[in-house]
Amino acid sequence: MLFNGKHKGFLFTLMVLTLVIVSACGNNSGSGEQDAANQTNTSGSTNTAALSGTIEIDGSSTVFPLTEAVAEEFGKENGDVRVTVGTSGTGGGFKRFCNGEIAISDASRPIKDEEAAACKEKGIEHIELSVAYDGLSVVVNKENDFVDKLTVEELNKIFDSGSTVKTWADVRSGWPAEEIKMFSPGADSGTYDYFNEEILDKKGIRNDAQISFSEDDNTLVQGVTGNKFGIGYFGFAYFEENQDKLKVVPIDAGKGAVAPTQETIKDGSYAPLSRPLFIYINKKEMERPEVKAFAEYYIANIGKLTTEVGYIPLPDDKYKEEAAKLQG
Asked: Is the predicted pLDDT of residue 151 greater than 80, yes or no?
């Protein structure tokens, strides 16, 4: 069939209109799908796809492996959030926290009254969260074949600031007359604070002990492994990580000697050196979506991560209590 010019013009116009309509429908469909995706991303309590920013954490070297593990897993799901974790010690962390320098402080002991007062003076309110249990572990060199256990009194005799003990023979008759090399965390460490309170009756540690001022427990590990007659103390996770070159010492608090294990720390029979570990969160910082998301992720996942890094998880009900604190 032949078409004249008039018919050809009509067909051309019809084809153009058809293409415009099809194109418009396609664009509308894509826009609708994108809108639906956006609604899906923002429908939860926290839009993790949009999270970004930096979260700075500092404090306890004992809690560091826990927080580092959480930060690593959180980062896999939130690549635009940068989480940095320092180890200035519990006391050092609280100083920075109360100055408003960091969002979260790791702590191997509860906040002290004077630290809480310093925070209050700067207008900083905090949320305290228990995250795991730890057993402060007393260790000697792997080649030490005479220390089978220590009483709390003997520990005091070794480390107390007023002690005159010099050799292992001074601690217990029959032990070698070899000079004791003592290794301890520094004064900013929550581990030191706990040991000072529970073992030293708050009298402080002796001047000739070798102190880790860097608040790095690996320094203490190296000190004890490098001295056949050395002795030190730090968190259970650091012993487990180095148990091939260290010997843990059972502690007798009056009911028989007990060594730190997952079970004895959790049930409290490893006394008096079992303790809870904490993180402290600046309430104001919780207004930042990335901080709130990280805190919620921490409590939701720390139970399963705790065992992986050598600590002891809290009961499930306790984690639910801690999670509820974040909703206030």
From this structure: yes
Which amino acid type is present at position 215? E
Question: Rounded distance, CA 262 to CA 310, Å?
Answer: 8
DSSP 8-state assignment for residue 83: E
Burial zone of 1 (CB within 10 Å; 0-12 exposed, 13-18 middle, 19+ buried): exposed
Question: Looking at the DSSP assignment, which residues form a beta bridge with residue 181?
Answer: 230
Count Cα atoms within 13 angstroms, Cβ side, for 259.
Answer: 10
Dist. CA 68–CA 100, nearest whole Å? 21
Q: What is the pLDDT of residue 218?
A: 85
Average pLDDT over residues 95-99: 98
pTM of the model: 0.80
250 prior amide bond cis, ω within 30 = no
Residue 49 has a pLDDT of 57
Give the tens place of pLDDT for each residue, 173-220.
Answer: 999 999 999 999 998 899 999 999 999 999 999 999 999 877 778 899
| Structure-token pair, residue 46 | 């926290």
| Burial of residue 282 (number of CB atoms within 10 Å: 0-12, 13-18, 19+) | buried
CATH topology of domain 51-132+278-325: D-Maltodextrin-Binding Protein; domain 2 (3.40.190)
Q: Where along the chain do the CATH 3.40.190.10 domains lie?
A: 51-132+278-325, 137-272
Options 3.30.70.120, 3.40.190.10, 2.60.120.10, 3.40.50.300; CATH for 137-272 is 3.40.190.10
